[in-house]
Design brief:
Layout: E1 4-9, E2 12-17, H1 23-47, H2 55-61, H3 67-78, H4 80-103, H5 107-124, H6 135-148, H7 158-161, H8 165-168
Helix pairs in contact: 1-4, 1-6, 2-3, 3-4, 4-5, 5-6
Length: 178
């Protein structure tokens, strides 16, 4: 396990020791659980008896959402090419995001993708029948934590990928890893 990590927070570079206490293990646990959650969601959409179709949720299930969000999601659900794109990208995105988090490869990129999806899921379920704090918001928070704290550098492939000459020559790539 990597002993230290470096993050940038509010414009300041900070180094912290993952080995202190259980911090590193908690981050790995959060990364793997979040990855399994998304991998399972994506794969089960492929294995379902009926092809995945987000149309019903986009048009009807988001009716409690605030105006612009519902209007956009309903438009996606009623526009054939956007609906088809969504029907392909949601399960594919969930599967790839889940796989990346479980393996610890390109974790920040995967966390950004998960944050994007969870934002739409959260806002799309905006009738908030179970309150403002719900599973969608907690999933969004998990992606933010895993990405911000570079959880792929701990027992993940990102620690190895960052040592590759290709990545070393392109420091900007480190922002996708972690």
């Amino acid at each position: 396990m990597a002993a230290t990590g470096e993050i940038e927070m509010l414009g300041n570079r900070m180094e912290f020791d993952y080995a202190e206490g259980v911090t590193g293990y908690v981050l790995v646990f959060a990364r793997i659980i979040t990855g399994y959650w998304f991998l399972h969601a994506g794969v089960t959409k492929y294995l379902a008896a009926e092809p995945f179709n987000a149309g019903g949720w986009l048009v009807n299930g988001t009716a409690g959402a605030p105006g612009p969000v519902h209007a956009f999601l309903a438009w996606v659900g009623q526009t054939p090419w956007m609906l088809e794109f969504t029907n392909v990208m949601v399960p594919l995105g969930e599967t790839l995001i889940g796989f990346a988090l479980i393996t610890g490869a390109a974790v920040r990129l995967a966390a950004a993708g998960g944050t994007f999806l969870m934002t739409f899921f959260y806002l799309g379920n905006a009738d908030w029948g179970h309150g403002l704090v719900n599973g969608d918001l907690l999933g969004l928070a998990l992606f933010l934590v895993v990405g911000a704290l570079a959880a792929g550098r701990i027992l993940g492939l990102d620690a190895y990928l960052e040592e590759l000459e290709f990545v070393r020559r392109r420091p900007a790539l480190r922002y996708l890893l972690g």
